[in-house]
Batch of 4 targets.
Target 1
Amino acid sequence: MIRVQAEDFDPGVEMARFSGNGAIGGVCMFLGLVRDFMGDGTQVGGMTLEHYPGMTEKQLAAIEAEARRRWPLEDVLVIHRYGRLNPGERIVLVATASAHREAAFQSCHFLIDWLKTRAPFWKIEHTAQGDCWVEAKETDDQAAARWE
Amino acid sequence: MKVLYFAWLRAKAGLGEEEVAPPAGVADVAALVDWLKTRSAGLADAFADMTLIRVAVNQDYVGLDHPVCPGDEIAFFPPVTGG
């Protein structure tokens, strides 16, 4: 399931939804938070996430479908927020459930790596020096390329 | 066709979306970009370096040689930074 929303979410509530399915032996979750510093150490007062409504959901659904094609998954949940977010706030949750842990771990890692390079979100960071669009990182491209 | 701009491209273009009717010879993304650049200084600046820009037609990633047709939704944006 894909959810793109401005509102916060409760990771405990989301994880509890995976209980009660006897086919699931393991659930792996990645939770992304807003840092309070940039790569060069500059303090960040928050960020605003912009996205492309429609394409975001389409690309996330395609990434979920690819994960389900590669691993035997019982369930997938991706939640991504947009709008103004303060340091420490939750941005993204990826959770995968499978009969065995290896598929859950690997597919969760795959989903966050591909999401970062394919889902049309853009971050602008707010600092005391002004606003700054975050640039895509080569390390993220390399992380995604591992799964090609 | 509808053209959308996101992130710093929107700021440079000075608008988030526009409905355009390019001349008949504009058949692919590259030709559309060349035509859009003639429409304003902001768009010429936004499209100055196409290596910094990603393109989607009807919400799928495409290359500059992808055809464009009336009714298409064409989006231009920088490399994505979600997650």
Target 2
Amino acid sequence: MHVPFCVRKCPYCAFYSIWGNEGEKEDFISALDVELRGWQEKLGGPLNVSTLYIGGGTPTLLSSKQWERLIEILKKHIVFSPDVEISVEGNPDSLTGEHCYIWREWGVKRVSLGVQSLHDDELRWLGRPHSALQALRALDLLQEKGFDVSADLMFGLANQTLRKWHESLSCLVHLEIPHLSIYQLSIEEGSLWGRTPPTGVQNGYVHYRWAQWYLEQKGLLQYEIASFARKGKECRHNQAYWFERDVLPLGPSAWGYFRGTRFWNVRTLEEYLKRISSGISPLAGEERLRREKRGREAAVLALRTRYGIHLPSFCEEYGEVLLQDILNNLENVPPECLAFSGETLALSQKGMRVANSIWSLII
Amino acid sequence: MDLSKIRNFCIIAHIDHGKSTLADRLLEYTGTVEGRKMRSQLLDSLDLERERGITIKLVPVRMNYRALDGQEYVLNLIDTPGHVDFTYEVSRSIASCEGALLVVDASQGVEAQTVANAYMAVDHNLEIIPVINKIDLPSAHPETVKGEIEEVVGIDAEDAILASAKEGIGIQDILERIVALVPAPTGDVDGVLQALIFDSVYDNYRGVICYVRVMNGTLEAGQMVKFMATGSMYQIEEVGVFKPLLEPVESLSAGEVGYVVANIKTVAEAHVGDTITDGNNPCAMALPGYKKVKPVVFCGFYPVERDDYPQLRDALEKLTLNDSSITFDPETSVALGFGFRCGFLGLLHMDVAKERLRREFGVELVATAPNVVYEITPQKGEPIEAHRPSDFPDVSEIEEVREPIIRLTSFLPSEYVGKVMQLCQDKRGTFISMDYLSPERVRLVYDLPLAEFILDFHDKLKSQTRGFASLDYEYRGFKAADLVRVDVLINNEAADAFSFICHKDAAYHRGQAVVRKLKELIPRQLFEIPIQASIGRRVIVRQNVKALRKDVLAKCYGGDISRKRKLLEKQKEGKKKMKQIGRVSIPQEAFLAFLKVDEEDEQ
């Protein structure tokens, strides 16, 4: 679910969000009710869900009242499996104790906090609306309430020395945060910086390399290009994306995947509300890939993770010919970039550092 | 026609000294072209020439002129191509005339090119009429120029005509002087036919049109004629004169200049310099001076879009209908695909051909850096003519390599002598002579390998002398030199496209330049790539392209997947466009940049 509200737009971000007044937030929640009902009708039965991810935007911009109503609506339409994993995204500047209380009551397991950095100068440069201290307080609050906390961190920032990067990382390690998403600042088309790029952005090799080494030492294993977790704390929801499981989109500009077809909702809240109120589905388009393309994409996505491609299943799903072709294309890849173990093929940590080059051989 | 009333003359001038404008004024003054049909540089036959403002060759023209003596004269103007690439054509044009206007710019003075052509005219016993042009310019100093003409060309310039073609000054004087001084042609109207082809052009509708000067006898429609160099027989369809548009006449007799149409399919059948004679009553000997010109500069032409290869071939075929001195053979290049190795008379000839292909035939092409032809004597077997590095045998099998040498004459202000001598030395030149034409101007003569000349000599000379030097050259034949083929190895595999020929002493520097450039242009890949330059098996330079360290941007959830896939597909497409040499992907730019490796990079 995409909650499309932010207090302001960060210059590097290309996701859809608006400031949003109270009325728009209320309308958004009401529209979700209609959208869910539509899915129920379309699928002709209850919506069985094993993971739910409420992201954004900034979901913590919804008030506790609005959250209560949102949860009621979700409960009304969705049948959650007994071991459901519900994740929510929050920002340090808008997270409150009330949010934590409501989430806890409802059964939220994971909270992902947009920390980005624990240096105020870096946060200012990124245009983030919070300080390092606010981030630490929010982490503290979440851990005290017993959530599985995940923190987002960015590297490759201007003037981000390895030492400063290490300070952000090690601080989170010492707080025993069990899950980290670390990602490089990338200049996206459609963001403010996409039009006027900042100076001093770094290639990020040393930062990434260091994180791979250091986090592993501290028991946070890299289970995907950007994801590190203590054993058992991996995010199940994200794996649904990487292993082609069915995903239902909710909210403007959300994406879904169902039996080989990827589809997406209209981008803006305005359009979304208009569709919903006129009784039209908010789906804006879909993409259905041919089997071979789907297979190649599946291979690339599987190679994002440490689990890699399970060769016999891949062969069964997409055929011997495609598998062989992919393996042939990987022939010139230096062996130290790949990790073969039994029936699976994955990228080594070195391979993950140059993953784009390897993927482009097999896509 | 009364021979005594004919005057055949040509114009010898340096580029920019006002040849085309002068010709325009002559046409106007004689009323050959009506005022309303007049346009600037009327006789420049190619669009290209008019646009660049340089004249390679004017079309011939016949003018009727009533002189001050009250008599009507026929004046035939035959042009001489103003560039060293076309020296042979110049010699045939000169052989068709009895007189020459030597046009010299009043502020620039005599230039190297002019001298060579003037010498040739003197050699052919032409009456030379010096004309000092552009006297209206404030910077004109005609007296100095007169002195130069006398000093350098060695003809009397006391009575040189002071003219300004632009202002119409001196035009009548020129016409009168032609009538008075240029000898009337001699020849036997009733003799056996001998006509000299001084040019031939291809016309889409009529086939080849030969421009001729009749030396003896008469040419007329219906006649069977023989082309002596090829031995082919043709029936003449039409003869005529240049007004300047083609205008048929009944016959052309000894002394006259005109054209012949005889259903000839390609200009290769009507060589410049060939003699046309009567098919039924052939002359005993051809006119002297015929030779078949051979290309001296070669380069590859490739279509920009690979699918356009057939269009390029068609265009080249049509172009050679027009210009038989161009040769072309199919070749393939790793970088550029299918194309042609083409031979030209020189660099300007090459440029003009390239432009004509583009304009007249609409072909977009990539031209590789030019190279010369080498003669190789192997230790065993027949001598080899090498047009490209891959024609070279292994270094251990070579007895001797010979390269073409030119004799270069340059006129330049004396203050630049030191620099230009240094430049010539750097280019492996051999000093021949130096003399002062005046305290300010020097004539410098060097023998220089053509290969060094075509690299960038002209640009260098111009920049070192601020454009004040002019140059001319002639071929001196082949000379043995210590030349080697330098090979480039990428990841230990030979990459043909990067091989080059150079002097042994320059091999290290040029090898270094190429290797460094490739290192810049070959993107980092998943493994380290050694790039080496070698002579035979001996590696002289080595550098490594380090392995890629990082190529990944982190996040990828839901909606990112399609976008990321498309980015990867794009990356893959990009890689497909690259050329694989062994395991290494080499981008197109590397090949293209190599074709342009120049001295700057070597330093």
Target 3
Amino acid sequence: MSDKLSPSTKGRKILPVGHYRGLGVWNVAFLFFLYMPIAVLIFYSFNANRMVMLWGGFSFKWYIKAFNNTAIQDAVINSLIVAFFATVLSTAIATVGALVLARGGNFRGKTMSLGLITLPLMVPEIVTAVAMLIFFAAIGLNWGLGNVIIAHVTFCIPFAFMPIRARLEGMDTTLEQASRDLYASEWETFRFITVPLLMPGIIAGAMLAFVISMDDFIITLMVSGAGSTTLPVYIYSMIRRGLSPEINAVSTLLLLFSITIVTAYWVVSKKTQTKTVH
Amino acid sequence: MSSWLPTNPSSRRWLGLAPTYLVIGIFMLFPMIIMGTYSFMEANPYGGVKPVFSTAAYIQLAWEYDLDNTLIFNPGYLKIIWRSIELSVMATVICLIFGFPVAYYITLQPENRRNFYIYLITIPFWTNLLIRTFAWIIILGRNGVIELPLLSLGIIEKSLGMMYSDGAIAIGLTYSYLPLMVLPIYASLEKLDFRLLEAASDLYASRLAIMTKIVIPLSKPGIIAGCILVFIPCLGAFIAPNLLGGGKKLMLGSLVQFQFASARNWPFGSALSMLMLAVVVIVLILYARGAKKSTAGEKATES
């Protein structure tokens, strides 16, 4: 990097202004701290031994066991159902909300609306969980997985909202104006100009909502009844029953799933960034 | 023309925002109001509440009834609240010390490398918190990744007992929310004008002075935002104290969960949640005030 440009005196490099010795090492140590637990978890999922920490040779047997575990299968199906509905509904709600807040100009109640939309981010998760539990109990709503879906839609809204709003604010409005000048109706302009341009933001928002829903644990733990266990809640019950490499195997799969989606999100948002520059 | 849409811009706005208001209003804001009223009711031993006004839940925070029905001071819950604050502050400070140099290092990198580092730092944030905390049981636990080699090499003779301690909880909390510290600091450092540093250097400022007098003051908004983003979830944390503290070293979050899951004291759980909300509101008000002051200050210096 810039080290090559800096002159050397007596073999000791003079760092350019603003650079400090040891920063690079610190950064590597930081990334090690961040990824070491994940690596350890994945490593031990291939342990043939029953005891998680005693290495007994390489094996896929815990993955096979996890795949054949019907309780895990049910939990995965529940998680996917919840995440599907939470993603579709929260993205739709966030999209119309973002259109108003990014394009509606200044109006009374704008700050309040922004505050409401980001409320789930501000309140500690356990408080949200408890409030929803009380609410469902108070009105006697007992829809099983339906309760979980309602909770997930609610806290996924701000996550879907953020990328959509960012995209709207960075979008050029001249195409929409041109379309209107050429006698396209308001609906046609929206359908054929605004929506396609906004699509990368909507996809990014949907991906974040999906990951957040798949990963949620505390709120789901509190509002889910018997029969509506999602994968993280099931993993928690496994941990409480005692350590087993099977937990590592399921966890590894869930981790890789999230990492794949976030990486896809990253690629999508990076592509759209370069597109807007050119 | 889409005739079903109202033409009046104001009604359109509210039509677009209606779903948000309905969902977050009904399923989050309204439940929080119910929670507030529940905190002023009597507990029903079978779960739920008896609709009778009572301040027992708040009294229970610091006092208990003796056998002869006199109130005596009981600091048990206050200790848990204090420990939650202590551990949250500790985790926030460790995150700051750990995270600031990294955020600064990233700003020194060329553009594409910066994006890659930010990607690496955000990845753990989007993965399951429960699983990431579980990994620390394998690392810190009895015969875990740290202990086993030390034991087999004979450096230590018995288990270090790292698990189920405040230290383990602090590590878990730090690990959980580290990305939330780095990202806002990076966001404010990214806008840093490096010509300022060169000017300071030309005027014989030392490296230390450049850091403490220019870089740190200019990244203050990011530092404060990062501290808030780490502190608030730490205060309500449930997973780290439960898995790494063994459920015995309670924190506010796990204490609240306990009131609903096992103790069946909903009013007390609600009162604890209200307390947590009050702390969050105070922190956010202080933050908003500070932000207002600093923008007012900037405007004053500009003119």
Target 4
Amino acid sequence: MGVSIQRKNLHLLWRAGFGPSAVDCQLINSETPASYYKKLLALSVKTPAYIDVADSSQRQMVTGMQQNEGLRQQLSAEQKRALRIKSREGLKNLNLAWMGQMINSPQQLREKMSLFWHGHFATRTVNLLYQQKLLDIIRSHALGNFGDLLQEVSKSASMINFLNNNQNRKGHPNENFAREVMELFTLGRGNYTENDVKEGARAFTGWGASFNGEFVFRERQHDDGRKTFLGKTGDFNGDDILKILLQQKQTARFITRKIYRYFVNAEPDPAKIEWLANRFYERQYNIESLMTDIFTSDWFYGEENIGKKIKSPVELIVGIRRILPMQIENEAVLLLLQRLLGQLLFYPPNVAGWPGGKNWIDSSTLMMRLRIPELMYAGDVFSMKPKDDDDQMMGMKDKEERENDSAVSLARPGKKYNTRGRGGQQIMATIDWRNWLELYTPVARQNLLPAIVPVLLQTKTAVGETTLKNYVDAGSRENFIKTATVQLMSTPEYQMC
Amino acid sequence: MQLGSLATASLFLPKFMRAFETPRMVPAGNKILVVLQLSGGNDGLNTVIPVRNDLYYKARPKLGIGKENALLLTDETGLNPALSAFKDLYDDGSLGILNSVGYPNPDRSHFRSMDIWQSASASNEYINNGWLGRYLDAQCSGCGMPVQALEIDDVLSLSLKGEKMNGIAMRDPKRLYSTSHEKYFKDVLAQHQLVPGNETVDYLYKTMADTVSSADYIFEQSKLRPTTAQYPATALGQSFKTVASLVFSDISTRVYYVSLGSFDTHVAQEAQQKRLFTEMNDAVKAFVADLKANNRFQDTLLMTFSEFGRRVTQNASGGTDHGTANNMFFVSGALQQKGVLNPMPGLADLEEGDLKHSVDFRDVYATVLNKWLKADDEQILGKKSAYFDFV
């Protein structure tokens, strides 16, 4: 039996974006996947607007200090701390602003690609301006040329600071960046020698970032001697090294394999990856072409690839909010959910990014995932504490807890919401059901479930009607759709796409 | 599943008889490991104090703890004044202290260094699972309930994530039980059918089923011989109380994992470390007393660690910044070697102001895995290690 057009389109929308909106669902039966993809791509062409959540005082301070080195030296420890705390608050806003783009932007393909690169070029630094800049580089080049992306990321203050290249000086090399650029960003383990790491590090000496986040080349710190790197010899600098890395077909293979496992199937198919990688390499690392090769192939829409991927926490939350638009009064609760489920944007576990797949799942995260739709719908109080992140807290946990009662206490008394004691949280959401309800207007009552299930679930199994019927509110047609939707989202199947 | 002799025997006891058993009758059983993670980078030098070392007082004119205030263990070593219970344990022969534990090329980021400690990796290696999770893999292959390793928390640490199995995190058995027994989830679970080509979904259902059955089992066990002892009303005190009740039951759990933090004392260290140590001291004191009263202290090993120690020199804010090597405590009624197990850190021989490590933490893990838990440490850690003799 062939795969239906609807199923193919939903597969495309989940993998090339964050799932369908209720409005998208009106089209999923009429368009072919090829024309749907064309549309998605066209919507993602425009260079995205810079996401800027820094306030003017923050920027002025940094500019002021850049112009006057003395000013920075004069800052007391207390002032520096205050700056960092402000930065950390800014990162929360940046997180929510970007998540907002994932939910609402028509540039679904670009944002999805950006989330992939965000995990590929993973950095952790508490500097808001650096992180904003890196995110902009990633979003601007997400579908562009991988070589450009690699180069700009490598020269970003975020990466330079995270991988200690400011400390990489002639005679005193710091090999951190040189190692990771090969191991994680281009070639992958086993495709270079320790000597390549050493020689590469020499070439990157002098690459640094100024306080306000500009790339600087410190010539006096640069080792301009001869280096032998991946079998080539010359007076290489950092740019030369990146060029040599891009000349390696292994780089195309490594990136293609990672993209295949992220967008198509965690189980790699060597023949398909080789075919894609060859074309990626021939077309000078054009990311858009690679993605078009994938999303317009027949095999992408094969049953073996559909519903086989475990949604990441961000994909899960964004996916729910795309199909059910909602106002969340306490948006910061989304950061709590990200932390509880193990994917807080801008805080990857390490430079290798989020491992993904089954790694998302343990008993705590799975049970939490299953509860989220109901928490959004009913606003129940829940009490879950994420682990402390000392890199974020910077020794301020005690103070914060005393001031706030609990750093994650987000529940507030209100008409609709109850708080029960200390430490309870709520998702204060108001769901806009109109489009979702309207979609089913033409469907007869007894056919509602068979119509809703295949739109929400991409898997082979689904919770049976007999089970579901005990938990849906059949009082009205509207309540039936609402409760059935929430219950279907609260199943293991909904974790898949 | 590996069950101790106690567990096996009690399976044949009628339930009403078990109800009449008093806690004092708990016989020797499984060896238990309790890991206490001190999150945030505990300052080891103000934990185990080199009271006769001038370099220490020179580096810490304000923060240094004077000999007169330290709880003296030896001529040259004292404990932080807030650790009176640990001093008692020392006198009792139930405390071992290992100094200068760390790893080569130390990382000073909390997250990364904690990652390294939890996954037992080298500092340039990224491993997506933890040492106790891999213990679980080895111990629990094919077993239905991954309860050999439990974390008292809402979120599971990397330490307890394996390649195949994951440990279970819970605040308390009752809450775990009520969350997993949401009727809808049980019904969803009951109606699931295996169909070919659906392996990942089946994996999610299996995780769900394991959670439900583990929650039942843990909850039942927690009611079997709940401790009646008094514990401090702190979060850590209550965590230890939960652990004690499970240790006294017939549960097959071998490893418990609890955390305390944050020890990230950049500012006003003295008060913060004192507050946390008091919480730790009182909780461990109650726990040990309870274990002794129930005849389980010789079967239990409590081990502390932190992702790094702190710099030798105090900073300008009455605190200390991120450092490297650190000490670990071992508390048990069955220590083979007691007291200060190796030399105090050399303060004259620093690396850019930081302590050098002389003990690799993976050798400590290997010792505990091999000698205490009788597990294959080489398989779990992926390398051959040297063992210590303290257990």
